[in-house]
Amino acid sequence: MASLEDKGFNISKNTFFKYLMSKASGIMGKPVKVGLLLTTAYEKLTSANSTESGFEQIKDTMLRFMRLVKAYYNGTYRNVETKSMLLGIAVILYVATPLDLVPDFIPIIGFADDLSLMAWFINAFQEELQKFQVWEEGAVAVGHS
C-alpha cells in the first residue's frame, strides 16, 4: 500500500495539478489573490473533521506554510525558494478548489487526496518549513510577529 506521500507525489504529477501550477505562477504576483486563497484554504482546513492518523500534524504544518506565505507577502520573511512558494501555492489551490480528483463532498475519501498532496509537500519541503518555524519562533520570542 502506497504511503500518503507517495499518493501525493502521484497527484503532483497529474495534469490537473500541472494546471494549478500555472495558475499559482499567475497568482504569486497578486498579493490580494494570495490572501483570498489563504483565507479559503484556512477555512477548509480548520473546518475539516478527520480521524485520519496524523491529520492534525499535517493541518498544523500546512497552517505554518500559510503563515510563511503571509510573511513572504508582507515582507517579513524572504528566506524561501521561489520553487517552494510556487509548489506550496499550487498545493493550497488544490486544497481550496472544491473540484479536484476526488470531489470533497464525498465523505472521508473526498479529503484523502488533499491530505495526500499536503503530506507529499510537507515531506518534500520539510527543510524550508523548518527554517521558517525557527524564524517564526525567534520572531515571536522577540515580539516581532
From TrEMBL:
Primary localization: membrane
Pfam families in alphabetical order: DUF1232
Keywords carried by this UniProt record: Membrane, Transmembrane, Transmembrane helix
Localization: Endomembrane system
Annotated ranges, domain DUF1232: 87-120
Name of the molecule in the record: Uncharacterized membrane protein YkvA (DUF1232 family)
Membrane topology designation: Multi-pass membrane protein
One GO cellular component term: endomembrane system
